Each structure stands twice: as structure tokens, then as C-alpha cells.
UniProtKB/TrEMBL annotation:
InterPro entries: Pribosyltran_N (IPR029099), PRTase-like (IPR029057), PRTase_dom (IPR000836), Rib-P_diPkinase (IPR005946). The keyword Zinc does not apply. SMART domains: Pribosyltran_N. The gene is prpsap2. The lineage of its organism: Eukaryota, Metazoa, Chordata, Craniata, Vertebrata. It comes from Chanos chanos (Milkfish). This is Phosphoribosyl pyrophosphate synthase-associated protein 2.
Length: 357
């Protein structure tokens, strides 16, 4: 049954068949057919997009999930947005559950803030609205000059914990680093559970140590400054031996984070929790990128189960590792599309969500 007003078109911008599954689920929930479009790579690796139906005066929703070739994914989206713009679409809304390059949202030495560049490219191409989910840093919304709805996957993950982990009342929510403590606290408060934080020698990729603006040089270069100036150097950071703040002995440990890609830090956290007496270990994350050998490493690790949403297709990884489970979030994306198209308030989708969530 069609639950929307007329003038709605939904496209999937990904040429990868496995990446179109989320678009099909959303269209099915809304009771509409996916729009007709051809997206393919030519022999010279150029991306070509051909819209095969009229979009004049319509609300166009372009669903783009991130495939293994992230740069091709971005070009497909940009070209399709521009094609809809030149075809006189009324509104062009991007539905990008996982925003690519979201980890590159801070200045690193002589690098660049790539997520800001990507936001500018999307706006310039003609995007008028963005729907995404669990941005790595909420401040990324400020990179856009268009409305951004940053939806949350936590209600679905919390529901999974309550329904699929029988003894979850004996669990403790774990942050694998102090940077993840706010997310862990949010889960713990909603489930009325305790919290534990792992802190110690494992180097966090997001730490200030890799940021050239905060890390002092190892050699004091007196010749580079005026002889009369003696600028004091910061004492280099040194992490203490790894410790777990909180009791996990005889408990189920549930590690929560927004992204699971390089799994080394998760494996190290799982080993530490096992040593501290946790008898079962779950990992919950919104975006399961699971690059390279991640499935094999998870299968051989102390982790009992990894639960991710279908913001990113990972069917191949699931075949390689039965421990990986999927939670479907097409319901909230389809409801967001319906509300935006019908001009309804989005506040219902953000109920009980605080500033720290």
C-alpha cells in the first residue's frame, strides 16, 4: 500500500547489486516502485548515469550505500544528484546511511578535512536535504548549508539486546576507549545497566598524538624562534598500562561503538575483558565496514557476536564469519522519507534523544 502522497521518486545510485538491497526494502515499506535509472562504469572506468523516467517537479530521494569502492560510490551519487537537478526535480534528498570519509573530520598535521570537502561537493551538485545515520562526529552537520537529519540506530540495537541476549540483565556496557564513554553511558542508562571503560596502552587512532597541532616536536628547535623567546614544550603523553574501570567479572560484556572497521582495537578489548572475567562478549556498532581480514579475525577471536546494522552491505563478510549479525534499519529511513515528502514533523524520530546521544 502506498503510504505517501504523489510526486515521490526513489532511486538507488549504486551500480553494485548487493548495495541496492536497502533501497528495495525502503521502497517496499513505502509501497512504491524504485525509479528507473541506469548506473554503470564504462570501459575507461568513468561513471555514467541515465535517468529513465521524468523527475520534473518531483521529490527525488537518492539512496546510496557505501560499497567497497568508496570513491566510485561518491561519484555515482554526485552525478545522479546533478542529473536530477538538470532534469528540474523539485527537491533532491540524499539518503546516505553511512557518510563516507566521516573519520576525516578533523585537521591532521598537513592533511585536510575531507568530510567538509565532500559536504561542499554534495551541496554544489544540487542536494537540497540529507538523511544520514550516526555521524562519526555530530559536528559534521555544520559542514552543510542544507538541512541534515542525523538519525539514530541505537533504538534498534537496544531492542536487539533486550530480545536476543537472554541474560542481558547480567551485562555491562563497555567503552573500548574513553572516547566512546558517552555512547556507552547512553546505552547503560537506557538499559539500566552498569558501565565499564577500558583505558590504557592501546593507541587510539582518534587521539591527539596524531594531530600535529597538539603533539609537541620531539626535538626543541631553538633556531626557528627568536632567541629571547623560550616557549615551553608540552610533556609528551604516555598511556598507563591497560586497565578496565568497572567490574566485568562473571558478566556479559557489550562493547558499543559507531563504526567497526579495523578490528584490532576490538580484539584487544575482548582479550582484556576475558582476562578480567567476562564470560561472553558482544560488539554492537551502527556501521559495519569490516574491511580486509576483519571477518577472519573476528571468527578467531574471543568475541562471541558482532551486531551491526545494514547501513553498509556486508553479506560477503557474513558468509565468512557466522558471528556477524545484522539489524535492519530500513523502517526508520522509510519513515523519514515519508515524513519529509509529506511535509510532516521529524521530531517523532528524535524523541528521547539527548545532546550526548
Amino acid at each position: 500500500m502506498n503510504v505517501t502522497k504523489g510526486g515521490l521518486v526513489i532511486f538507488t545510485a549504486n551500480s553494485n547489486p548487493s548495495s541496492r538491497e536497502l533501497g528495495r526494502r525502503i521502497a517496499e515499506r513505502l509501497g512504491v516502485e524504485l525509479g528507473k535509472v541506469q548506473v554503470y562504469q564504462e570501459a575507461n572506468r568513468e561513471t555514467r548515469v541515465q535517468i529513465q523516467e521524468s523527475v520534473r517537479g518531483k521529490d527525488v530521494f537518492i539512496i546510496q550505500t557505501v560499497s567497497k569502492d568508496v570513491n566510485t560510490t561518491i561519484m555515482e551519487l554526485l552525478i545522479m544528484v546533478y542529473a536530477c537537478r538538470t532534469s528540474c526535480a523539485r527537491n533532491i534528498i540524499g539518503v546516505i546511511p553511512y557518510f563516507p570519509y566521516s573519520k576525516q573530520c578533523k585537521m591532521r598535521k598537513r592533511g585536510s578535512i575531507v568530510s567538509k570537502l565532500l559536504a561542499s561537493m554534495m551541496c554544489k551538485a544540487g542536494l537540497t536535504h540529507l538523511i544520514t545515520m550516526d555521524l562519526h562526529q555530530k559536528e559534521i552537520q555544520g559542514f552543510f548549508n542544507i538541512p541534515v537529519d542525523n538519525l539514530r540506530a541505537s533504538p534498534f540495537l537496544l531492542q536487539y539486546i533486550q530480545e536476543e541476549i537472554p541474560d542481558y540483565r547480567n551485562a555491562v556496557i563497555v567503552a573500548k576507549s574513553p572516547a566512546s564513554a558517552k555512547r556507552a553511558q547512553s546505552f547503560a542508562e537506557r538499559l539500566r545497566l552498569g558501565i565499564a571503560v577500558i583505558h590504557g596502552e592501546a593507541q587510539d587512532a582518534e587521539s591527539d598524538l596524531v594531530d600535529g597541532r597538539h603533539s609537541p616536536p620531539t626535538v626543541k628547535n631553538i633556531g626557528a624562534i627568536h632567541p629571547s623567546l623560550e616557549i615551553p614544550l608540552l610533556i609528551p603523553k604516555e598511556k598507563p598500562p591497560i586497565t578496565v574501570v568497572g567490574d566485568v567479572g562473571g558478566r556479559i560484556a557489550i562493547i558499543v561503538d559507531d563504526i567497526i572497521d579495523d578490528v584490532d582495537s576490538f580484539l584487544a578489548a575482548a582479550e582484556t575483558l576475558k582476562e578480567r572475567g567476562a564470560y561472553k562478549i558482544f560488539v554492537m556498532a551502527t556501521h559495519g565496514i569490516l574491511s580486509s581480514d576483519a571477518p577472519r579475525l573476528i571468527e578467531e577471536s574471543a568475541i562471541d557476536e558482532v551486531v551491526v546494522t545494514n547501513t553498509i552491505p556486508h553479506e560477503i563478510q557474513k558468509l565468512q564469519c557466522p558471528k556477524i549479525k545484522t539489524v535492519d534499519i530500513s523502517m526508520i529511513l522509510s519513515e523519514a522519507i515519508r515524513r519529509i515528502h509529506n511535509g510532516e514533523s521529524m521530531s517523532y524520530l528524535f524523541r528521547n534523544i539527548g545532546m550526548d546521544d
